[in-house]
């Protein structure tokens, strides 16, 4: 089932396949660093701080950096109306399922959490995804097995949905006390 929300854009593709775990628009720090680099290069060119023999190469690199930043920003999903509500519902449902599958903070602190069970929950498909949510899983690059994904896959989906909505995308907030 296809998802109406596109996670990965052209900028994330290499040889027709997704080349990264998370989409480029997910990483605000990288986008900010790229923008800072562009601004710095523009200032250096304006102030004449680039050696004459490097001006052409610097301008070409500046052009490539601007194009890359623009491609990344253009690939960020623009959610509106019913689609935004649907992604918010997916995020909520996934968050609840992930939270239920995690040992509590108290269990972790007291050493009551079984490491083998924790590993099984992370790796074995245990979180149900049906309908549109299964399509979103596939769009995120998560393998769906018998209508379920593992907790790591669900966490990736939750992080992507959170970032799309401008929410906190750290799964630590899902752990119960």
What can be said about this structure in brief?
With 177 residues, the protein is mainly α. The chain has seven helices and four strands.
What structural keywords apply?
single chain, 177 residues, mainly alpha, two-stranded antiparallel ribbon, two-stranded antiparallel sheet, 7 helices, 4 strands
Model description:
This protein has 177 residues and is mainly alpha-helical. The chain has two domains: 24-75; 81-174, no CATH class. The protein is 56% helix and 5% strand. It contains seven helices and four strands; from the N terminus they run ββαααααβαβα. The strands form two sheets. The chain has a two-stranded antiparallel sheet. Strands 3-4 form a two-stranded antiparallel sheet. Strand 1 (13-14) and strand 2 form a beta hairpin. The longest helix is centred in the middle third of the chain and has 21 residues, at 55-75. It is elongated, with a radius of gyration of 21 Å. 21% of the residues are buried. The model has no long low-confidence stretch (mean pLDDT 93).
Strand content: under 5%
- Overall number of strands: 4
What is the CA-atom radius of gyration, in angstroms?
21 Å
Specify the number of helices: 7
Q: Look at the structure and give the mean pLDDT.
A: 93
The total tally of domains equals 2
Helix content: 55-70%
Helix/strand class: mainly alpha
Termini Cα gap: 36 Å
N-to-C SSE string, H for helix and E for strand = EEHHHHHEHEH
Taking pLDDT < 50 over at least 5 consecutive residues as the criterion, the unreliable ranges are: none
Biggest beta sheet attributes = 2 strands, antiparallel
Principal-axes shape call: elongated
Main sheet: strand order:
1-2
């Amino acid at each position: 089932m296809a998802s109406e929300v596109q996670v990965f854009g052209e900028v994330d593709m290499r040889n027709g396949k997704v080349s990264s775990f998370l989409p480029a628009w997910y990483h605000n720090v990288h986008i900010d660093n790229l923008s800072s680099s562009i601004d710095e290069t523009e200032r250096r060119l304006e102030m004449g701080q680039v050696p004459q023999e490097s001006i052409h190469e610097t301008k070409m690199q500046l052009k490539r950096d601007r194009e890359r930043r623009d491609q990344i920003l253009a690939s960020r999903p623009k959610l509106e109306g019913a689609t935004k509500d649907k992604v918010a519902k997916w995020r909520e449902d996934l968050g609840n399922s992930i939270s239920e599958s995690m040992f509590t903070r108290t269990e972790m602190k007291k050493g009551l959490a079984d490491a083998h069970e924790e590993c099984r929950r992370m790796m074995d498909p245990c979180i149900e995804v049906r309908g549109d949510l299964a399509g979103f899983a596939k769009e995120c690059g998560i393998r769906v097995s018998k209508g379920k994904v593992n907790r790591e896959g669900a966490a990736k989906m939750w992080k992507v949905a959170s970032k799309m909505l401008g929410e906190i995308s750290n799964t630590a907030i899902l752990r119960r006390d």
